[in-house]
């Protein structure tokens, strides 16, 4: 069955260019041209991934992304932006985007990123034979894509879940940002490592009791991150 990509861009020439390149490699594509049209298209087309422009009529890309996540719709989103300002890129990630590309962009690179996301959704990295992985109060069920913290369900986006599983797979090891880009985003080139930092921040907000003093995901200064077992401190009477 063909995987489906929803393209949301108010410039028909860009939509047609993306559509042409995606259809060449076997994707089914549907295009809409404003933010409000996304929600009807999702119900009818049921995309596997969305390519979402930041600047849209009626409802901009950030609003669309935020609303989808508020509705608990976890469809992967690649944000397109003509903005060079870092704050605009980070805003997209903060509102739930999985990745972003800056216009002008290479259609072939966009296709590669879409393929990487689809590939990672279909094949979760192996964590061994463990049906349930327990680290401190954190329990992870890779096959069910479920995470609980102290028995409470934790809602993670697909990319946050993949990042957590990758860290778990390499628990105790220090991983550079570039290693995480390669392992989780499937980047085979030097990518923007701030994507990693933003997703780590979001993951900490959801699994750490105090994101400012994390117990699970530690920052290794000038290197990257490490997932570790929380230290349980005994309370002396």
First and last CA, distance: 63 Å
User: Kindly state the mean pLDDT as a whole number?
Assistant: 86
Q: How would the global form be characterised?
A: globular
Low-confidence stretches: 232-237
* Major β-sheet strand ordering: 2-1-3-4-5
Which bin fits the share of residues in helices?
A: 25-40%
Order of helices and strands: EHEHEHEHEHEEEEHEHHEE
The radius of gyration over CA amounts to 19 Å
Major sheet size, sense and barrel closure: 5 strands, parallel
Judged by helices, strands and strand pairing, the structural class is alpha/beta
Percentage beta strand: 15-25%
The total of beta strands comes to 12
Query: How many H/I helical runs?
Result: 8
């Amino acid at each position: 069955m063909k995987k489906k990509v929803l393209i949301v861009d108010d410039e028909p020439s860009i939509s047609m260019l993306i559509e042409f390149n995606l259809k060449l490699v076997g994707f089914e594509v549907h295009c809409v041209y404003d933010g409000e049209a996304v929600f009807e298209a999702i119900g009818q087309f049921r995309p596997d991934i969305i390519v979402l422009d930041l600047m849209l009529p009626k409802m901009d890309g950030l609003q669309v992304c935020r609303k989808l996540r508020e509705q608990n719709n976890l469809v992967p989103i690649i944000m397109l932006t003509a903005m060079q300002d870092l704050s605009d890129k980070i805003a997209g990630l903060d509102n739930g985007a999985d990745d972003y590309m800056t216009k002008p962009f290479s259609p072939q690179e966009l296709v590669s990123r879409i393929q990487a996301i689809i590939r990672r959704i279909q094949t979760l990295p192996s964590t061994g034979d463990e049906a349930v992985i327990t680290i401190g109060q954190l329990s992870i069920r890779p096959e069910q894509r479920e995470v609980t913290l102290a028995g409470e369900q934790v809602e993670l986006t697909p990319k946050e879940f993949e990042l957590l599983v990758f860290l778990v797979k390499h628990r105790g090891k220090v991983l550079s940002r570039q290693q995480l880009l390669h392992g989780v985003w499937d980047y085979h080139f030097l990518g923007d490592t701030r994507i990693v930092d933003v997703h780590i921040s979001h993951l900490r907000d959801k699994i750490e009791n105090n994101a400012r003093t994390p117990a699970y995901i530690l920052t290794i200064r000038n290197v990257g991150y490490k997932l570790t077992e929380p230290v349980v401190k005994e309370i002396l009477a």
